[in-house]
Write a structure and sequence with these properties.
This protein is α/β, with parallel strands linked by helices. It has one domain: Response regulator (Rossmann fold, 3-Layer(aba) Sandwich), CATH 3.40.50.2300. Helix content is 34%, strand content 14%. The protein contains 5 helices and 5 strands, in the order αβαβαβαββα. A 5-stranded parallel beta sheet has the order 2-1-3-4-5, with helices on both faces. Helix 2 links the parallel strand 1 and strand 2. It is globular, with a radius of gyration of 16 Å. It starts with 13 loop residues before the first helix and ends in a 9-residue tail after the last helix.
Length: 173
């Protein structure tokens, strides 16, 4: 039942945790086979090349939001890696190449703006329900490529993605 899904990473029971570990292991196995696909680029960002789908890092502590945004991005041909917090996102950024980062603003361990410093100049989309009053004047907001308010529509997200990334090669879809 959808209503019983945990919405925050910390709300999982031990059986949910086992399921999550199984999903993570299956995702890693699938990623390992995808790793045979030729990539170009470096640890400084991006790997856009012919016949390679752009890669997005999506960061949100709301598990339902992660699933929904992942689906939205996959429908336009992006490969998606998910992180449930800023710490996990930073680990992905250390070891993987991405073409765009989409991050929630408010998370338990840090804000999406805190992740911006690690974005290596990649397009950075900030998703937020609300930005706290004091944070509205944060100078880092000017470095955000796009700011979308939750709940974001598929059309709105697709429009931003199409503006920030070159067309996805049809062979990559």
């Amino acid at each position: 039942m959808i209503s019983n899904l945990p919405t925050k990473a910390g709300e999982m029971s031990s059986s949910d945790g086992q399921l999550s570990r199984s999903i993570v292991e299956a995702t890693k196995a699938a990623d390992a086979t995808d790793g045979e696909t030729a990539k170009t680029g470096s640890a400084t960002g991006g790997h856009l090349a012919a016949n390679v789908a752009p890669r997005a890092l999506v960061v949100d502590d709301d598990m339902v939001a992660l699933i929904v945004v992942k689906h939205m991005l996959e429908t336009v041909g992006l490969q998606v890696t998910q992180a449930a917090n800023v710490r996990a996102a930073r680990l992905h950024l250390e070891t993987e190449d991405f073409d765009i980062i989409i991050a929630d603003y408010l998370m338990p361990d840090a804000t999406g703006l805190d992740l911006l410093a690690d974005s290596r100049g990649l397009p950075f989309v900030l998703l937020s329900g609300v930005i706290e009053r004091g944070d509205q004047t944060d100078p880092r907001l000017s470095k955000v490529t796009a700011h979308l308010t939750k709940p974001v529509s598929t059309e709105e997200l697709h429009s931003v993605i199409m503006t920030l990334l070159p067309p996805v090669p049809s062979a990559a879809i």
